Amino acid sequence: MSIELKEEKGGKLLVIQVTGKLEKMDYEHFVPEFDRLVKEHGKLRVLFDMTDFHGWKLSALWEDTKFAMNHFSDIEQLAMVGEERWQHGMAIFCKPFTKAIVRYFDHADTAGARVWLAEA
User: Fold this and answer.
1) Pair type for strands 44-49 and 2-8
2) What is the reported pLDDT for 91?
């Protein structure tokens, strides 16, 4: 149950690794860091790695909803990497809630997700 952030490409690419089941407190570090990166770099490209992710507790789901509403236009491209069928469905479900170009990749093709995010 954690969210790990890693800046790459001078902060223009943000790798977000989520594992376990997210709790409200996981967002206490994540949201300010995301805000800082947007202020520094503008729109971000995000690799959202959901390998070993098992969803949200109810309080965390509300935090995630607030995050999505507040950052609707801060993500340019979103590569969602997962290993479960529901994660692929989540990628389809989130498309109307963001201005980002969203694409799902199986965890075996993380390298392909990186290539896609690096394309101009």
Assistant:
1) unpaired
2) 74
Residue 56 zone, left/alpha/beta (φ > 0; ψ -120 to 50; rest): beta
- Strands 53-56 and 13-22, by their bridges, are parallel
CATH code for the domain in which residue 67 is found: 3.40.50.10600
Domains held by the chain: number: 1
Which residues constitute the domain of residue 26?
Answer: 2-118
Return the CA Rg of the chain.
13
Rounded to two decimals, the pTM is 0.88
How many residues are present in the chain? 120
Q: What is the pLDDT confidence band of residue 120, given thresholds at 50, 70 and 90?
A: low
